[in-house]
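Researcher: Quick sanity check before group meeting.
Model: Go ahead. Protein one:
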Amino acid sequence: MPMSFVGSALRGTFFLIFGLWWSVRYPLKYLRRKGDAEGQPSSGTQRAEIFEGAVKALFALAGILVEQFVPTGPHLKLYSPETHSWTELTHWHCSTIYLFFLLSGIMDMVSQSRLKLPPGLDRLSLCLALLIEGLLFCFRDYGDAALDHHLHSLLAMAILAGALCALLEVFLRDHIVLETLRTSSFLLQGSWLWQIGFVLSPPWGGPGWDQSDPSNLTFLTMCFCWHCLGAVAVVGANSAASRCCNESCQLRFGDIDVELDCGLCLRTKGSRGALLPESGADDK
């Protein structure tokens, strides 16, 4: 049974939001870490991880509720004794995917807490969520719908790429190349899920594309390559914009840096002294 357009668009929006956010956040984090001699994670980075986890968990919880309680949903009923059959397995299939992303979001928040968990568990939980998503799409019953199977096989490639990057990040934390590849894979998943919705369940109604036409398979494979190029272009454009923003936001006046913290401190490059207000020398 093909997925509805709303369901595909909802999942696609989830991946697009995170992909677009990461395409700005990771380049900025890399540039600031590169300019920081200590290279220690800041409290702002930890707050961003907690915020991402909360958004991921809330979005996944909303997805589960939507899949279960839409008018055609199973309403938490897995098996029907009356018909002796499973109830709306497509909705249960999507709810399971959201469930693992919900757990991933919770792990993102717990990893930044005071529990002192081993590093990398947040990326490992994300890898697990992506692998579960790919597993369910690969072993779904497509019947004779060759086009449906082909579309989700291409989607599985993007899912596998994101899962591999997340797994490598368990051991190579804050690696900008892996973060960029994971960002691209999320953007690719998001845009391709929207494409799947338009192909199989057009929002304007009517039947989807012809499942038996082999030229559709050829075109959509080429279209997937265009989506890959678009994801890379978005990441590149946002990275360039992030670099320009980072450079324009730095306050530099000749050889003097201006640091705004709890007070005003003007420090001259290459010197250890500080220019402070005359009345505050004793307090300092």
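Researcher: Fine. The other one?
Model: Protein two, sequence then structure:
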Amino acid sequence: MGTLLGHLAPALLICHSGLYYTVMASQALSRGQKLLFPPLPARDKQGQRWRQRVRAEGTVKVGAGEILILRESFFPPGTNCFPLIDWEAPRRPFQHHNAWQHATIFGFFLLSALVELTSQAWLAQRSMKLERAATALALVVKLLEMVARIEHKNALEIRVHTVLMLPAFLLALVLIVEVWVPDQPPLWVLKPRLMLVSGSWLLQVTSILYAPLSGQP
């Protein structure tokens, strides 16, 4: 992820997700819905094919998570950042720290997407609390990894990562609250706003670090 493309792709994905949930929240509020998404019927009353029970955003999250993890490990072509330990060295040190930190973040978001698909397709009744808890866990892991990343960084990277922690913390807090107090319209509005802030700030950080207008970071 330590490249222009590596930061640009997640930023655009976060912004796209924020816009999607903004549209969904606007439609739900304008229609006076009590739920952001209409509930799925019980499994025995649904179609036989699991594809008919799965929402599109879960499938997109799975695909994006897999692509981002593979990119961290094997991009550019010929790169292999997958080995975590250098077994040939006498002290067997850890290696590829940045790649593994990013892959851990993407891996937990991939896990949350798989939890969503499992809840929608294979559980007798969809568990929204389980889905929200999995997403909240992924955001908490992201926040912890961002805290770990500021170690041994220069002043500029410490500042930009500290800035990105604020929307990540607030978004994780909103999702944790949503686990216990679901279906609250203020949270419908606040969540996409924080996603848009997080994505736009990540785009600005990408520009500062890798494509500054002045030519110097």
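Researcher: One line on it for the slide.
Model: The CA atoms of residues 53 and 121 lie 6 Å apart.
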